[in-house]
Amino acid sequence: MPGEVMRRVVTVEVDGRSKIALNEEVSAGSYYQEIWAHDDVDQLGSDPGTEPHATVPAPGQTRFRMVSVPPHSEVQAEVAEIVARGEDVRLVMETDEEGWHRTETLDYVYVLDGPVELLVDDESVVIEPGDTVVQRSTNHAWRNHGDEPIRLLVFMAALR
């Protein structure tokens, strides 16, 4: 997904008439591509390309993004490099060494490619393309056992 381009169309109402506000290509970052960010409860959202946004939304905020899950072998190699440099993996990757993380959000995840393994504290399940996950602020990790990145379409809402 790094460098991948997606078309984004955003509508708006101006003087009581609906209009196309944005019709453009959006480039991907390293692991995710921000499609839209909603930071202000009084607004309909803002263009993530023009304003800085926190990775994880705060209460009342949302994020809509395409996430790329690289093959687990690549993640392990990246972790080994970070550790060899003497850096804290959690500060560099925003997760621990094995990708475990938890956000105070309600996440709706639609699997575009796969399969991908979803791990929670005491069990795991293999998720296939077309499957949906409702992630309710729980500790979890994703494992891509294949040799190509897979994509997840994710909507995150911070409700607390």
Overall description:
The chain has a single domain, classed as Jelly Rolls (Sandwich), CATH 2.60.120.10. Helices cover 11% and strands 43% of the residues. The longest helix is centred in the middle third of the chain and has 13 residues, at 72-84. The chain is built from 2 helices and 10 strands, in the order ββββααββββββ. The radius of gyration is 17 Å and the shape is globular. The protein has a 5-stranded antiparallel β-sheet, with no helix packed on it. The model has no long low-confidence stretch (mean pLDDT 79). The protein is mainly β.
Descriptive terms for the model:
11% helix; globular; 43% strand; Jelly Rolls; 2 helices; 3-stranded antiparallel β-sheet; 160 residues; mainly beta
Q: How is the topology of this model organized?
A:
Layout (H helix, E strand, L loop, with lengths): L4 E10 L2 E11 L4 E7 L23 E8 L2 H13 L4 H5 L12 E6 L4 E5 L2 E5 L4 E5 L3 E4 L6 E8 L3
Instruction: Count helical runs.
Output: 2
Order of helices and strands: EEEEHHEEEEEE
- Poorly predicted regions are none
Strand content: 35-45%
Examine the coordinates and then state which fold CATH places here, giving the name of the CATH topology: Jelly Rolls
Shape: globular
Structural class, judged by helices and strands? mainly beta
Trace the largest sheet across and list its strands.
3-4-10-5-8
CATH superfamily: Jelly Rolls
Helical content class:
10-25%
CATH architecture assignment: Sandwich
Question: At the first level of CATH, what is the class?
Answer: Mainly Beta
Global Rg: 17 Å
Whole-number mean pLDDT: 79
The CA-CA distance between the termini, in Å, is 31 Å
Main sheet, how many strands, which sense, barrel? 5 strands, antiparallel
What's the domain count? 1
Number of strands: 10
